[in-house]
Structures are given as C-alpha cells and as structure tokens.
Amino acid sequence: MSKHPVRPFLVSKDESGLFRLTVRETRYNSQGYPLVTATLQAETFKTASAAKVHARDHFGAEVGDYAAK
User: Fold this and answer.
1) pLDDT class of 6 with cuts at 50, 70, 90
2) Which string of DSSP letters, residue by residue, matches 6-61?
C-alpha cells in the first residue's frame, strides 16, 4: 500500500506533443487498500496550464491536486 495519496489530476504530454488530462478517483476497500480509477479526458490542450485551468473550471481542482508525467 502506498504511503503517499494519489493526486486526483494527472497532466501528461502525448506523442503528438499535446497535453492530456487524466482524472483519478481513489476509493478504499474494507481492508483500507486504495483502489484508483483513472479516466483519460477526451480534450487535448496546447499547454499544461490550459489543462490545469480546465480541471479547475470543470472538476473543482485546487493548487496541489496536480501530478505531471
């Protein structure tokens, strides 16, 4: 089990150079083991900042909720 919680938003760069946003949801089973569901969003963005603004506006993301890959 990971000691560090998974950040709910992942901003990554794809092979074509555009940025993609993945929304991750963490649930815990009855033994306290984290189960993470990741959903890649259909939108693409020219910059990582644009992806973060989209996450803030549509999903209520806050500073520190982002991970980069």
Assistant:
1) confident
2) PPSEEEEE-TTS-EEEEEEEEEE-TTS-EEEEEEEEEEEESSHHHHHHHHHHHH--
CA–CA separation, 57 and 63 (whole Å): 13
For strands 66-68 and 9-13, give the pairing: parallel
Report pLDDT digits (tens) over 32-42: 899 999 999 99
Report how far Cα 34 is from the mean position of its chain's Cα atoms. 16
Q: What is the pTM of this model?
A: 0.85
In Å, how far are 17, 63, 69 from 8, measured between CA atoms?
22, 11, 13
CA distance 50 to 8: 17
